[in-house]
Design a protein that fits this description.
Helix content is about 45%, strand content about 5%. It has 14 helices and 4 strands.
Length: about 350
């Protein structure tokens, strides 16, 4: 009997060790690599690019969606596509339901289209986490003519929790120190934070995210760091009674909101492009302000650093190897799907 029990104990020990390894930092596990799908799904990047290009042709503003999806995914539980899940196995709301994501996060339909094409071509092979990373790169290329190779091999997570999104994503009310701390927790430097903030040059924001900077109740105000003319423009676009339910939005970049360039950094010293209190902090902090000036002076330098920062961000706390799973569809864990089918 003792010998009969040993294999069971051994298997249990292996399972425990495997689960423990999945919790270790990415540096201790298998590295991501460029060309991960060369043998198993060689057309993966082309199929994702086709989905992104088709969406961009219909609406150039969609480019901001996958970029922001990638950021909001990686900052919560790492780059594991947990931001896509619509159910929390443990109960409660998911990351998608959290205030930083709902209702402003876009690009889910782009990921759906890419996933559907890949499931036809290479069933059960490409993770949603990798699709997000590829789609973000392709969006950056279309909006800003910036290209880079994406290391792949991420696996999809099974858990998504609203509270963790609130705890990890920097809110628009963040101070310079809070921004520094949130990015440092993900092994990203102050410079990389300033670089990545430049993504605010594309996309739109709900008025409710910055309403208290231009209105005090129904009284017009001009918060420090906003030019009076820019505040007046924002008030014309965003009435004092704006709500998320009304879905009133305004461009993040008042000039070219669908072009990824260094205008975010150029506008900051002019007290424009400062929709959020957190944007203003890049001018208040001397070191951050110096970096803003450097990137405002050279779009080429900013784009090089932006690509580098995106690659590094894409490695945050990834699951690889036998950790995680490859979902059959982007919004439901494969294990959850199997449990429902077995009932």
């Amino acid at each position: 009997m003792a010998w009969q029990n040993r294999p069971t104990v051994g298997m249990a020990l292996v399972a425990v060790v495997a689960c423990s390894l999945c919790l270790l930092p990415v540096m201790t596990r298998a590295e991501l690599r460029v060309g991960f799908y060369d043998d198993t799904c060689p057309n993966v990047e082309e199929l994702v690019r086709q989905a992104v290009t088709a969406a961009f042709a219909r609406d150039a503003g969609i480019a901001a969606g996958p970029i922001r999806l990638h950021f909001h995914d990686c900052f919560v539980r790492g780059c594991d596509a947990s931001v896509l899940l619509v159910t929390n196995p443990a109960g409660g709301k998911t990351e998608r339901d959290a205030a930083p994501n709902n209702p402003s996060l876009r690009g889910f339909d782009v990921i759906d289209a890419a996933k559907a094409a890949l499931e036809q071509s290479c069933p059960g092979t490409v993770s949603c986490a990798d699709i997000i990373a590829f789609a973000a790169r392709d969006s950056i290329n279309l909006a800003g003519n910036v290209d880079y190779q994406v290391p792949a091999g991420r696996r999809d997570g099974r858990v998504s929790n609203e509270t963790e999104a609130l705890q990890n994503l920097p809110p628009p009310s963040s101070t310079a120190q809070e921004l520094t701390d949130r990015f440092a927790a993900k092994d990203l430097s102050v410079e990389e934070m300033v670089v990545l903030s430049g993504a605010h040059t594309v996309g739109r924001s709900f008025c409710t995210s910055f309403l208290n900077r231009i209105w005090n109740g129904t009284t017009p105000i001009v918060d420090e760091g906003l030019s009076p003319s820019y505040a007046a423009l924002l008030r014309a676009l965003c009435p004092a009674n704006a709500t998320q339910a009304a879905a009133i939005t305004t461009a993040m970049d008042p000039g070219l909101p669908n072009v990824l360039d260094n205008f975010y950094h150029k506008l900051l010293p002019r007290d424009m492009g400062l929709l959020f209190f957190s944007d203003k902090q890049l001018r208040v902090d001397p070191f951050m302000a110096e970096l803003v000036s450097i990137f405002a002076a050279s779009e080429e330098l900013w784009k090089v650093r932006f690509a580098q920062a995106m690659i590094k961000m894409g490695r945050i706390e990834v699951q690889t190897g036998r950790c995680g799973e490859v979902r059959l569809n982007r919004s439901t864990s494969a294990s959850s799907t199997r449990r429902r089918r077995s009932r």
